[in-house]
Design brief:
This protein is of the alpha+beta class and 195 residues long. Helix content is 33%, strand content 27%. The chain is built from 6 helices and 8 strands; from the N terminus they run ααβααββββαβαββ. α5 crosses α6 (163-171).
């Protein structure tokens, strides 16, 4: 231990980054692209969020569920998100990303989309599996999203009632921009950040 400390603090030794000093954490790696078999766990998480009133989609109608499933499949296979704009369907850039250990099922996932190369990525929905909540994986997921989509600002909106998700956003470097009349907060993370 003493040898390691001497090495760290001797002249010419590389110094730990601000994040390593502050959190003692390893650098998170980018997320994996989701697979088609991951879509079911994503939809299950949307159902859980919908039951609490925190989902961007209301899945009580089977046609909405099927439309969401097809849009997610399109995103996984083609990298495009089908977005409704002025009564038409627009083809936005889309990424469905998964946080996983090895080849197992995802610990959490993120759906990000944007209309073109010049726009910020919008995080439409993200989650951590029930069994992984409370262990820092939400922050890890969002830090990995920032690494995966580096060079572009990220934006998201969440109801203020989503306390743990908001804590994870703030710990990952997102800052609150404003809160609307429905108590939905908008958050943004800059394109570049200090690692």
């Amino acid at each position: 231990m003493l040898t390691k400390l001497k090495h760290l603090f001797s002249p010419g030794s590389p110094q730990p980054t601000v994040r390593q000093r502050r959190h003692g954490a390893k650098r998170s790696r980018p997320l994996d692209d989701a697979r088609e078999e991951d879509i079911d766990s994503f939809i299950e998480a949307v159902y859980r969020a919908d039951a609490k009133g925190h989902s961007p989609w209301v899945l009580r109608d089977s046609s909405v569920l099927e439309t969401l499933r097809r849009a997610l499949e399109f995103t996984v296979h083609r990298g495009l998100w089908l977005q409704r704009e002025e009564g038409q369907v627009a083809h936005w850039q889309g990424r469905l990303l998964a946080l996983r250990h090895g080849e197992g099922p995802p610990l959490g996932m993120v759906l990000a989309c944007r209309p073109d190369d010049e726009a910020a990525w919008q995080l439409r929905f993200f989650y951590i599996g029930q069994e992984w909540k409370g262990s820092g994986h939400g922050t890890r997921l969002l830090m990995a999203v920032r690494r995966s989509l580096n060079g572009v600002p990220l934006e998201t909106r969440l109801p203020l009632a989503c306390h743990s998700a908001i804590d994870s956003l703030e710990a990952a470097g997102f800052s609150r921009q404003f809160v609307d009349a429905f108590d939905v907060a908008s958050y943004e993370a800059p394109a570049k950040w200090d690692e």
